[in-house]
């Protein structure tokens, strides 16, 4: 499978490269574009300031430019938190998308979006301050109405970005469970 993996608001940290290596070891081809041009951050506030400085439109432009050379192959879009929201936006706009793997994040769904059976898998903490229960319920229903085949996995007690061992949110048990399920999902596409 060809996977375009987008980083979180912390930037392309070692955990993103480790995730890409894990996916490659499972036989996938993976690209990890650096939307922050080499900048990484120690706090979510610093990363959000960078995101705001760059702007949403520019980030999406960078993501589209990174994915465009490979989209004819049929990409699985994936991402962590902010990167998940970017992956979702791209996957819902790419008729050749093969799947969508969301780790720790979702995004708004544009009105009138239609995807024919797009496989979508979301892994998120429970509770998650950025992905509230009400938001996730509405997101799930909207994506289902758009035609996606959606699976949601919740991890009680884990922090928001629980798959990154370099962050305080890290939860080894939840992270390993996430990767087991996600690799199964990708292997079945």
UniProtKB/TrEMBL annotation:
Gene3D superfamilies: alpha/beta hydrolase. InterPro entries: AB_hydrolase_fold, Dienelactn_hydro, Dienelactone_hydrolase-like. It holds the Pfam family DLH. Residues 3-187 form the Dienelactone hydrolase domain. One of its GO terms (molecular function) is hydrolase activity. Keywords: Hydrolase. PANTHER family: ALPHA_BETA-HYDROLASES SUPERFAMILY PROTEIN, CARBOXYMETHYLENEBUTENOLIDASE-RELATED. This is Dienelactone hydrolase.
